[in-house]
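Hi everyone,

Forwarding the result from last night's run.
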Amino acid sequence: MLTARPLPSARWRRAGWALLVWALAWAAMLGLDNALDLANLALLLVLAAAVAGLWLSPLVSAAVCTVAVLAFNWTFVPPRGAFSVDLRQHVWLLGAMLAVGWIVAALVARQRALAQSEQSAAAQSRQLREMGDALRDSDDPQSRGPALQAALAALTAEPVSLLMLRAALPARDDAQAATWLGAPDADVSAGLWLATRQAAALGPGSGRHEDQPQWYLPLRARGAAYGAAQLPARHDDGADDVRAHAQALCDQMGQALERTQALRAAAQAREQAQAQQVRNALLAAIAHDHRTPLATILGAASSLALQDARLSAEQRQRLAASIVEEADRLARLTDNTLQLARLDADRLALALDWESAEELVGTAIARVRRHDPQRRVRSRVEPQLPLLRCDALLMVQMLINLLDNALQYGAPDAPVELLVRCVGDEMMFAVRDRGPGVPLALRERIFEVFQRGAASDAERRGSGVGLALCRAVARVHGGRLTLRARHHGGSSFECFVPLGVAPLGEEAAP
């Protein structure tokens, strides 16, 4: 049997049913003594032996049957009130009754044992299937540890302890490297660690440390263990079956833990591969997008250095302006790339302070107008805006990128508007243009790294990191950046940043 030992109350209950059957049989035989002959009364005794055998063990059933046959001889077989027998057929009757009673008791006991074995096997299969389903549906197998602990405790009706590794097996026993269930003492903990490291069972019947009073069963997977379980050893006839079933339950947990760790390792490998891919793409973008301004700067500087005497003042001014323009573009590309890498890093510390929206807008527009001779950028800031707790450098860089993007991709003669106002408990910075707009299929992808909008001419160049940086700046401030198509053409890039509680009086330091 692979269940807990029968309780004394259950054994007494079965004995009570058997006693009731015998009492009813004797009452029937005594009541029908004068109505039936001796052979028919004997059939009632054989019937009682068969029915009572459903609740009695084979030895007890045979002993009770023997006593019943002797009592039958004393009560019903002539001469009554004595164990002597007058006729030879009565001897054969009593012998046949005793033999049939023993055979029936043995057969009933065997059938009962087979039925109990089938029920136990079905219960094992159901338990293993349910445990497997629960572990397969769980993202964290360790959360199913209490269920495994309860299932193992039911096999011995005593407390069970579990050790489940959180990650790889540590070089030395470290309680912090595992999840513990139960209350193991120092000896039990040492046994659990030993079973985990050896990936083998310990205790009676395992071939290892047979003198131990406990079983230590590893949570095994492919060639390794991811923990162990301790449960009191049993020494009855079904001990080996109990241990085998408990090991099967433990192996299910071990396989689930291995699968989880493998998925975690695969996820980390994918993240590393993606990070390496981003780094490679970033280097490729830097190499590609920095080559053109560097070539322009080098060509203009070479011309100034080698042909200065033959150049007119207007030509020298044009070459110098080209150097300044391309150097400024190169600086913007470098700033965007470095800031994007910084925002993607872990444990980013922002230089937060209470800033005025008017100052942020003014700084951004002043920077943009250096390469906006037509002064197409216009600002509209709602009056009496509250202070905004933010990183001023990042916010200004975000606004510059959005404005440069609108100037580059918008209609050549149409103005670009920078609108700032409060929307609920957020402050909105919106950069609006009247260009061709962004195709529907690109409205989300355009915020990804190295994604660029369609350009109609060679002047519309970019690295594909500007809008990605803008969304990253909004995200680290707890906000969001969205793209909305405008009526009659154009796009509106809208950044929403949550408002904090502004300080009273002067601006507060972070």
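The longest strand covers residues 225-232.

Cheers,
N.
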